[in-house]
Amino acid sequence: MSWNNASFQPRQENGAIEQLIKRLARLPGLGPRSARKAALALLQEPESRLRPLAQALEEAVRAVRACPQCGNLDTAVPCTICADPNRDRGVVCVVESVGDLWALERSGTYRGCYQVLGGVLSPLSGKGPEELHLSGLQARLEGGEVREVILALGATVDGATTRHWLQGRLAPYGVPVSRIGHGMPMGGTLDVLDDGTLAAALATRQTVEVQPGTNQPFEIKPPRPVPGGAGNPPT
Ligand SMILES: [Zn+2]
Question: Where is this region: Disordered (predicted)?
Answer without folding.
Answer: 209-235
